[in-house]
């Protein structure tokens, strides 16, 4: 169904139909409901009245029965006590002197003969009451002697000493009973006297009575107990109805009215409870027997409702036709006016001829239109005159509106041309399409854009800077084309120009500032001049004048081409190249050499800057020359000296390396052969020969040591000492060195000790060099310590460094020598040297090797007391 096609007429029709049918139906239902309720309450009253009467009848019947029980008990009492007062003698109940009650049925049979019913005498025995005389006969046809009374009866009569009344099933029938205590002369309860009246005759009376009662046309009264047993009923007496819901409801509620289905027909029943017998008295009938008149009323009501509905439909048709005619006219009219208004025609007014009822509507609408027109005119004047471009686009990004300022900004004559040019979110307008995409993205994301500046290409080909503020009512996703709904545009071209100009001025001032700074910093040497585009002097300072005269013997003048003064053609060419670079707009600083070969060439630091007109065109150049010849000469001299020094050092080192090699070869044979002689491999030697040979060997070894050290030092100095690190256990190296120096220690009987904070410490070092360091320090310590002295090693980790020290209790080093001993060939005294031997190179090598590992070494020492050499090596060591 197309809901848009439901016209006002349909609506009126529906409403008026609802307005007639609803009330008629509601009234109909209400009337029916009322009648039904009335019928119900009548029926309820009827059933309740009957129950009340029936309950009263049952009560009076049973009160008669109770009276009979009481009078029977009176008879039994009289007969019992006429034989004397009771006592228990030898376990038997005796009346008077010697009347035995046990197994004596005279009393009970007499009672039966007089009043009918049953009678019993009980004797209390060991917490029980036992029948000792009775006329109650068991199913086996014997007197029920020896059986006991029930517990509730015992509790009431014997324990509490009260009377007991009640219904009881005695042997084979229901009895209405009474029990009373039998007391001896001391007042103790020794037995119970009982009488019972058969209930049956009383029930039969009630059954007979109920059989005569008719409820409605076919209804009746019946009696049920709380287990659902039907006790009195015209047809189903003796059956059980507990399974039926209605029976359960009756048993639970005890009193009330219930309606239920019985064999497909609706039944209604009133019920009440008679507690003494656990009886439910139920009076029931078929509902239809009472509802006959009600159905008649219902049928006539339905008829009445139908008639009213038909009449209502007719009336609604007529009404809807008359109202909708007028409204449709108004709506059509309003639609026309709205369309006209949207096209800007605000003069159209609504037709008032729509019938007297609805006339007020077009009248008020026309008033609104008048007000709108007035406002619109004011707004239009504002929009036409405001110096802000205002536009509006539709949902396709097509421009719909533009005010006169907008037309001016775009650079067109008419509104139509302007709108045409602004198509598709101003696609033609943007010099930079990236910027347009940016605008679209911001709009899509935020729904609006503020002070968005862009460079525009106007329709007349001119460039302009525009600033746009716009708002879209569409929440588009980023990347979608949002459509601008409203926006305004400011022409900020003038402002941009001003900003640009300001920037240029700032640049110029900055240049001027730099120039000034130069002049201030070095007034003596700075040369300044300015040239125009044809290299002709515009201005120059006195320094320049002097320099030009000095170098080229030139007397310079304003307006003359500068290149004409430069006598060296190469210099002139070089200058021209630089001038052209500046005239092309570049600014730069370079160091150049210029000058007469006769007077010597000079070095300048030259700052080239373009000279610009107000419009930013290059019209010439300025040049600042600073004479840096002296600085340059010093630099060059230093450079030459350095190269020379490095060269000679290299030569020296190479020489030493070669020499050492040449010396070592013959020395090895000197040592080797003297050793062989010493070991007497070639035969015996006399004492003198032995002495000399071992001198040769000792001197040879010393010489070899010296050469090796010299070789190391020269390698170090020529920068050829290689460094090859590997993971090395320092503790292990220390142990190796200790083993190596052991013979020396023993020879001088020196007390040696090694204290280490670590068991194993692997770090990345050049193993051979570390070994050399430790060996040199330890052999020095042993060497400079007298016999029976002490030498010791300490090693620990501190601040990420390994710190190893070698201490001795030896001769010590005077303070003034402590620094020099690390230099090559330095020894504390040459006489001491003769005593102790050595080359004066060991510590120099140690220091260099320690530094190779980024470590440090220092000495603490006191003359006569001893020395302590400590070196450190960082644990996280470089790899190469
Ligand atoms: P040398 O080969 O002469 O031992 P070194 O460079 O190893 O050369 O030592 C330089 C000088 O420093 C030694 O000659 C000695 O005078 C002094 N020296 C070095 N170690 C000790 C020390 N443990 N005790 C006293 N003097 C020392």
TrEMBL record:
CDD domains: HATPase_EvgS-ArcB-TorS-like (cd16922), HisKA (cd00082), PAS (cd00130), PDC2_MCP_like (cd12912). GO terms for cellular component: plasma membrane. Residues 375-416 form the PAS domain. It catalyses: ATP + protein L-histidine = ADP + protein N-phospho-L-histidine. This is histidine kinase. It is found in: Cell membrane. GO terms for molecular function: ATP binding; phosphorelay sensor kinase activity. The keyword Secreted does not apply. Gene3D superfamilies: 1.10.287.130, 6.10.340.10, Histidine kinase-like ATPase, C-terminal domain, PAS domain. Keywords: ATP-binding, Cell membrane, Kinase, Membrane, Nucleotide-binding, Phosphoprotein, Transferase, Transmembrane, Transmembrane helix, Two-component regulatory system. Residues 658-877 form the Histidine kinase domain. Signal peptide: none annotated. It holds the Pfam family HATPase_c. The lineage of its organism: Archaea, Methanobacteriati, Methanobacteriota, Stenosarchaea group, Methanomicrobia. Its EC number is 2.7.13.3. The chain crosses the membrane at residues 12-32. Residues 450-504 form the PAC domain. It comes from Methanolobus mangrovi. It is a multi-pass membrane protein.
């Amino acid at each position: 169904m197309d809901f848009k096609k439901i016209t006002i007429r349909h609506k009126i029709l529906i409403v008026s139909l609802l307005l007639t049918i609803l009330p008629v139906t509601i009234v109909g239902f209400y009337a029916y409901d009322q009648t039904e309720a009335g019928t119900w309450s009548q029926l309820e009253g009827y059933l309740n009245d009957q129950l009340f009467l029936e309950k009263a009848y049952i009560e009076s019947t049973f009160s008669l029965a109770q009276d009979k029980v009481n009078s029977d008990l009176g008879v039994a009492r009289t007969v019992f006590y006429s034989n004397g007062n009771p006592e228990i003698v030898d376990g038997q109940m005796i009346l008077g002197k010697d009347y035995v009650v046990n197994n004596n049925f005279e009393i009970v049979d007499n009672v039966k003969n007089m009043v009918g019913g049953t009678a019993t005498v009980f004797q209390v025995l060991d917490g029980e009451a036992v029948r000792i005389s009775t006329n109650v006969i068991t199913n086996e046809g014997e007197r029920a002697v020896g059986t006991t009374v029930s517990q509730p009866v015992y509790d009431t009569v014997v324990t509490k000493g009260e009377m007991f009344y009640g219904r009881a099933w005695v042997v084979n029938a229901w009895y209405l009973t009474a029990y009373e205590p039998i007391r001896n002369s001391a007042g103790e309860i020794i037995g119970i006297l009982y009488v019972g009246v058969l209930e049956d005759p009383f029930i039969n009376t009630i059954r007979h009575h109920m059989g005569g009662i008719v409820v409605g046309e076919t209804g009746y009264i019946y009696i049920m107990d709380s287990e659902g047993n039907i006790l009195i009923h015209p047809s189903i007496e003796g059956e059980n109805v507990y399974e039926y819901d209605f029976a359960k409801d009756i048993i639970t509620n005890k009193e009330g009215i219930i309606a239920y289905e019985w064999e497909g027909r609706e039944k209604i029943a009133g019920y009440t409870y008679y507690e003494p017998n656990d009886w439910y008295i139920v009076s029931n009938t078929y509902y239809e027997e009472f509802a006959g008149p009600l159905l008649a009323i219902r049928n006539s009501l339905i008829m009445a409702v139908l008639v009213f509905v038909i009449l209502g439909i007719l009336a609604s048709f007529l009404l809807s036709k008359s109202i909708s005619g007028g409204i449709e006219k108004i709506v059509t009219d309003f639609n026309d006016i709205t369309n006209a208004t949207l096209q800007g025609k605000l003069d159209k007014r609504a037709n008032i001829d729509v019938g007297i009822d609805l006339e007020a509507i077009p009248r008020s609408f026309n008033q609104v239109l008048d007000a709108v027109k007035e406002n619109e005119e004011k707004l239009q004047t504002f929009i036409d005159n405001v110096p802000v471009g205002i536009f509006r686009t539709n949902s396709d990004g097509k421009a719909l509106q533009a005010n006169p300022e907008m037309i001016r900004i775009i650079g067109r004559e008419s509104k139509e041309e302007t709108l045409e040019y602004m198509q598709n979110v101003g696609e033609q307008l943007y010099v930079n399409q990236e910027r347009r995409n940016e605008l679209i993205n911001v709009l899509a994301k935020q729904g609006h854009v503020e002070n968005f500046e862009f460079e525009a290409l106007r329709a007349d080909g001119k460039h302009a800077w525009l600033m746009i503020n716009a708002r879209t009512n569409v929440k588009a996703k980023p990347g979608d084309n949002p459509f601008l709904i409203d926006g305004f545009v400011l022409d900020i071209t003038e402002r941009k120009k001003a900003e640009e100009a300001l920037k240029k001025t700032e640049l110029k001032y900055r240049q001027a500032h730099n120039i000034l700074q130069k002049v201030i910093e070095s007034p003596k040497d700075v040369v300044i001049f300015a040239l125009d585009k044809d290299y002709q002097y515009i201005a120059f300072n006195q320094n320049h004048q002097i320099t030009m005269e000095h170098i080229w013997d030139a007397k310079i003048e304003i307006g003359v081409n500068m290149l004409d003064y430069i006598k060296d053609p190469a210099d002139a060419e070089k200058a021209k190249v630089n001038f052209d670079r500046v005239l092309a707009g570049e600014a730069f600083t370079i160091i150049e050499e210029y000058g007469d070969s006769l007077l010597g060439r000079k070095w300048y630091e030259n700052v080239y800057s373009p000279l610009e007109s107000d419009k930013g065109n290059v019209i010439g150049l300025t040049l600042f020359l600073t004479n840096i010849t002296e600085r340059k000469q010093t630099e060059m001299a230093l450079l030459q000296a350095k190269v020379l020094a490095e060269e000679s050092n290299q030569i020296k080192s190479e020489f030493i390396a070669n020499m050492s090699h040449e010396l070592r070869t013959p020395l090895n044979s000197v040592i080797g052969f003297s050793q062989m002689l010493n070991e007497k491999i070639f035969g015996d030697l006399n004492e003198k020969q032995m002495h000399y040979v071992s001198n040769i060997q000792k001197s040879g070894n010393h010489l070899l040591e010296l050469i090796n050290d010299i070789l190391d030092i020269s390698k170090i100095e020529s920068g050829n000492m290689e460094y090859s690190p590997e993971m090395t256990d320092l503790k292990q190296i220390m142990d190796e060195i200790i083993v190596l120096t052991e013979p020396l220690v023993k020879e001088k009987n020196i007390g040696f000790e090694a204290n280490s904070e670590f068991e194993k410490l692997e770090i990345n070092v050049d193993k051979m060099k570390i070994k050399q360091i430790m060996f040199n320090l330890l052999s020095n310590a042993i060497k400079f310590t007298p016999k029976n002295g002490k030498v010791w090693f300490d090693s620990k980790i501190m601040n990420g460094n390994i710190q190893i020290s070698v201490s001795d209790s030896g001769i010590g080093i005077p303070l003034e020598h402590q620094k020099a001993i690390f230099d090559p060939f330095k020894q504390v005294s040459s006489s001491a040297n003769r005593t102790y031997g050595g080359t004066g190179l060991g510590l120099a090598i140690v220091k260099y090797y320690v530094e190779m590992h980024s470590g440090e070494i220092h000495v603490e020492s006191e003359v006569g007391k001893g020395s302590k050499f400590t070196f450190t090596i960082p644990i996280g060591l470089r790899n190469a």
